[in-house]
Amino acid sequence: EVQLVESGGGLVQPGRSLRLSCAASGFTFDDYAMHWVRQAPGKGLEWVSGISWNSGSIGYADSVKGRFTISRDNAKNSLYLQMNSLRAEDTALYYCAKDDWFDPWGQGTLVTVSS
Amino acid sequence: EIVMTQSPATLSVSPGERATLSCRASQSVSSNLAWYQQKPGQAPRLLIYGASTRATGIPARFSGSGSGTEFTLTISSLQSEDFAVYYCQQYNNWPLTFGQGTKLEIK
């Protein structure tokens, strides 16, 4: 069974940093691109960042470019999102997602940016 | 960036009736389109990928069609559990992009 378990969220002040992690199991992790998708409270879904299976291709939404860094460790079946210079508008539930259509979704990890 | 536009924003339909949701891409995405269902307090669930292939465990009343820039999700006979928000997503190009969602509500 494919499982994606996000962690690392929390309450953080504007301008500070946070690192999210995603533990993957139930599939061959290094066969797939992985992504981060977020959902602000009461809003729709927004793709944040993606990384190819070998980290050779990486992409970011304009809203996070230059502040967020995606990475993966295939030996640990893990995906990461380093978030720097956080803003109030980064407040959201962050999901990690497998492949280019997302199935299944994890429970997400909540990031709240507030003073 | 490919912009995905869903219509209508809200659709009111009675149980047992058919619902038709639309998704338009600002440029061709071929058949690289997925549909998701999201209920309050839950993570999204994949319904359709490849524009028309149902995901595992998705009932046959859900069907997807279209290619290029115009796509449709049809729910043939609405059940009570189908009232939710539906999103389309293109995966033809990065950045991956979602539509803004269609809320399907009970009439």
Give an overview in words:
The complex is a heterodimer of chains A (115) and B (107). Chain A is mostly beta strands and 115 residues long. In chain A, a hairpin with a 4-residue loop joins β7 and β8. Chain A is globular and about 40 Å long. Chain A contains no helices and ten strands. With 107 residues, chain B is mostly beta strands. In chain B, the strands form two sheets. In chain B, strands 2, 4, 5, 6, 9, 10 and 11 form a seven-stranded mixed beta sheet that branches. Chain B is globular and about 35 Å long. Chains A and B meet through β5 of A and β4, β5 and β10 of B.
Keywords:
heterodimer; A: 115 residues; mainly beta; 49% strand; B: 107 residues; four-stranded antiparallel sheet; 11 strands
**What structural class do the secondary elements of chain A suggest?**
mainly beta
Helix-strand pattern of chain A = EEEEEEEEEE
Report helical residue fraction of chain B: under 10%
Q: Measured on Cα atoms, how large is the radius of gyration of chain B? A: 13 Å
Given the C-alpha coordinates, what overall shape of chain A results? Answer: globular
Our Rg estimate of chain A from Cα atoms comes to: 13 Å
What is the element layout, followed by pairings?
The complex is a heterodimer of chains A (115) and B (107).
Chain A: E1 3-7, E2 10-12, E3 18-25, E4 34-39, E5 45-51, E6 58-60, E7 68-73, E8 78-83, E9 92-98, E10 109-113
Parallel strand pairs in A: 2-10
Antiparallel strand pairs in A: 1-3, 3-8, 4-5, 4-9, 5-6, 7-8, 9-10
Chain B: E1 4-7, E2 10-13, E3 19-25, E4 33-38, E5 45-49, E6 53-54, E7 62-67, E8 70-75, E9 85-90, E10 97-98, E11 102-106
Parallel strand pairs in B: 2-11
Antiparallel strand pairs in B: 1-3, 3-8, 4-5, 4-9, 5-6, 7-8, 9-10, 9-11
